[in-house]
Amino acid sequence: MSTTETDPRDAPRASGGGEAPEPILSARGVEVAFAAGFAPGGGKGTARAVDGVNLDVSAGEIVALVGESGCGKTTLARVLLGLERPTGGVVVFEGRPMRYGSRDLRAYRRRVQLVQQDPTGSLNPRRTVYESVAEGLRIHEGTTADEAERVAGALSGAGLRPPERFLARYPHELSGGQRQRVVIAGALVLDPEVLVADEPVASLDASVRGEILRLLLDLRDELGLSALVATHDLGLAWNIADRVAVMYLGRVVELGTVEEVLAAPAHPYTRALLSVLPDAGEGEPVVLAGEPPDPKQVPPGCRFHPRCPVLASGEAERAGVADLCRTVDPAVLGGGAERRVACHWAAADGTGRVRAEAGGAG
């Protein structure tokens, strides 16, 4: 199922059986709405970029947030980083709601670090590797006596060894994979507990994508780091994640372990995303009708129903849920580690694989 050349799945998963650990970072009912000018039908519109999301990341766990471009995953990542303030709900870190005072955010951002998508764009071409990695350290702590040692340690931890070879180089002297490692080192130098990575390998060649994924797994195993990885790539999620949250039009529509969601998907949207992977197995790829709806005009009922192949094929009608799909919004999924899906048809299809949370929006 991987779309990368190196398969890091032989690394041990952090989560196993038994009771789920207390989450280190959580979104609880998070909503983000933007005034969006004039809607196509006339009048001002409000775009609901994130529309009620509950999501937990436990210590030492990697959670993949998967969905098409525009589904809200980058906005949610920004909220979890404290870069965007939610219009509803709350972000909780180590059991405490996030506070937005400048001193509080400064302390928080030491512990929850961003790994950006484009290492070329995020690195200043006029700064050496040393200066780029030391920047965050200087912002948070000023110049310290052990700065050089900590920068070298972060570069080594990110796989740039020996670090002395890279300290005086500039971004244009590095490969794409090396630049991404410098970006990761810039996060590691502050000894964070959580990394939030937005499409961390999207700009890299296939030959080095697996190396960066392996690095993230090694950091999880060696340092106990947690990570939320936002991606459109289900192959990446299969290779790196302990759990997967599938997002559509501002909502998480399916949630579970990587094996549950990607080996036995229950939501028609997840099934469609998986069907186009090169080694998805038998059957034709599912081509979804149309484009994702405008977040200013969320459809009634299930927000996926205008594009749903199960509804279009008559399967939902045979299951007796077609009217529900068109008129009743499935409940907002809860957080935690339980297997969940927001789909009337999955709740009624008789397979017994998933107990869906369906009904009025909660």
UniProtKB/TrEMBL annotation:
It comes from the Bacteria. Keywords: ATP-binding, Nucleotide-binding, Transport. Residues 27-274 form the ABC transporter domain. Residues 1-12 have a biased composition (Basic and acidic residues). The keyword Transport applies. InterPro entries: AAA+_ATPase, ABC_transp_ATP-bind, ABC_transporter-like_ATP-bd, ABC_transporter-like_CS, Oligopep_ABC_C, P-loop_NTPase. Gene3D superfamilies: P-loop containing nucleotide triphosphate hydrolases. The keyword Transport applies. Residues 1-23 are annotated as: Disordered. SUPFAM superfamilies: P-loop containing nucleoside triphosphate hydrolases (SSF52540). It holds the Pfam family oligo_HPY. CDD domains: ABC_NikE_OppD_transporters. GO terms for molecular function: ATP binding. Belongs to the ABC transporter superfamily. This is ABC transporter ATP-binding protein.
